[in-house]
Structures are given as structure tokens and as C-alpha cells.
Design brief:
This protein is mainly α and about 80 residues long. About 85% of the residues lie in helices and about 0% in strands. It has one domain. The chain contains two helices and no strands.
Length: about 80
């Protein structure tokens, strides 16, 4: 049970850390720009990052499901 909690905390910590880095980068890009609009390269990078994190979220949900199913079948091995 405690191993499962630790695994989930590590996963969520990694996701939150990555989101923090992206947010910081995004803020620096926006503040560093002299104009109000991002150029097309920056917008493309942001879209790629968004899609990457969408995939990551899906993978984390799958891992959570596997961990919870394994826990329900008699414990984590």
C-alpha cells in the first residue's frame, strides 16, 4: 500500500515539476517579447509541448490503472 502511494506521488511530482518548467518557460517567452504576439515558431513549440503533455497524462492514467488493479488483486509485487 505504501509503495503504491510512493509511486503515485513520484508520478504526480514529475508531472507537476514538468508543468512548472513549462509555465516558467512560457512566462519568460511572453515577458521577453517586445510585441504581444508569439511568433509562429514559438506557437508551434507550445503546441508540441501541449500534445506531449496530453500523451503523458494518458500514460500516467494507464499506470495508475495498472497499479490500482495490481493492488486490488492481492498487493504490489
Amino acid at each position: 500500500m505504501t509503495e503504491t502511494i510512493i509511486i503515485l506521488l513520484v508520478i504526480f511530482g514529475a508531472v507537476l515539476g514538468a508543468l512548472g518548467i513549462i509555465s516558467f518557460t512560457f512566462l519568460k517567452l511572453v515577458q521577453g517579447r517586445r510585441s504581444d504576439q508569439l511568433n509562429t515558431d514559438e506557437a508551434e513549440i507550445m503546441q508540441e509541448m501541449y500534445h506531449g503533455f496530453t500523451k503523458l497524462e494518458s500514460r500516467i492514467e494507464s499506470l495508475e490503472t495498472l497499479v490500482l488493479e495490481r493492488e486490488g488483486k492481492g498487493g504490489v509485487s
